[in-house]
Fold this sequence. Notes:
Elements: E1 4-5, H1 7-16, H2 22-35, E2 40-43, H3 49-56, H4 60-63, E3 66-69
Parallel strand pairs: 1-3
Antiparallel strand pairs: 2-3
Amino acid sequence: TIPRLDPRDIRALVKAGTASAGMVAKLTACEGAVRAGVRDVLIVDGRDRKRLVPALEGDVAASGGTRVTR
């Protein structure tokens, strides 16, 4: 898991083929959201309660997710 990305990082991951399949769609949606003015987006495994609950409580580190920022 990559802790933090910005739109430039997203484009590089997609271009390099590091991100593929469903992750490209997620990253593209996050990129669009931050470009449209959303401060940040958190990508987290919503199937895992141990990751989802901390994310909802604002504890990004405990969620193991990726924060996409401007």
